Amino acid sequence: xxxxxxxxxxPVTTLGPGRRIGVWFQGCSIRCSGCISVDTWAPAGGxxxxxxxxxxxxxxxxxxxxxxxxxxxxxxxxEALLALLRGLRRLSAGDILVYSGxxxxxxxxxxxxxxxxxxxxxxxxxxxxAPQTLMxxxxxxxxxxxxxxxxxxxxxxxxxxAKAFDVMFDDxxxxxxxxxxxxxxxxxxxxLLADQGHHVQTSAARARDRRDRNQQS
Length: 217
Ligand code: SF4
Description:
By secondary structure, this protein is of the alpha/beta class. It has a single domain (2-163), classed as TIM Barrel. It is 28% helix and 21% strand. The strands form two sheets. The protein has a seven-stranded mixed β-sheet. It is globular. Iron/sulfur cluster binds at residues 28, 30-32, 35, 37, 40, 71-73, 101, 125-126. Iron/sulfur cluster is lined by residues 28, 30-32, 35, 37, 40, 71-73, 101, 125-126.
């Protein structure tokens, strides 16, 4: 089964309880204003197979408490998402949290097929104007659904934590953050680094440059 993936990472500690395996899908048709994951919007790129993803995750499984599947928009690839969820369930007893920018009601068909495979779902688009007070959500309009007993056990009473990010370094020197930033956090970080003489190019800016170049050619 084909799947488009932006990134895999372990451990992720800021998107759900415990040490988690993070899976970011490539491609998002929703395109919320203010999205911090613009680099995952392009519908092309990151092509691989679900079995290859599962094989890559296997080494992390003994130390993982759960999985966080985000993007991009995982439900833009419903068949691949279902195949991945079935594979994860087969391999691990860890909980599975999935993010979607779609309203819960729009996901009814896939959720019915995925019955028991998703423990917790966070649904709804990012709204730049909404307050940001809820755990695991970028904006308070987004809803948390605990869909299984394991999901209720792990997600219904999330302890309040201070804002934190997982920081990942790629071989080419790129730095990635996982977590839920407050409004303006990345802009402040960028200004701080620029003040110290560092050149900072965000993935959002890089994606915008690429889009502009494509429009000109
Ligand atoms: S659904 Fe998620 S990835 Fe897609 S635009 Fe909205 S915030 Fe960004």
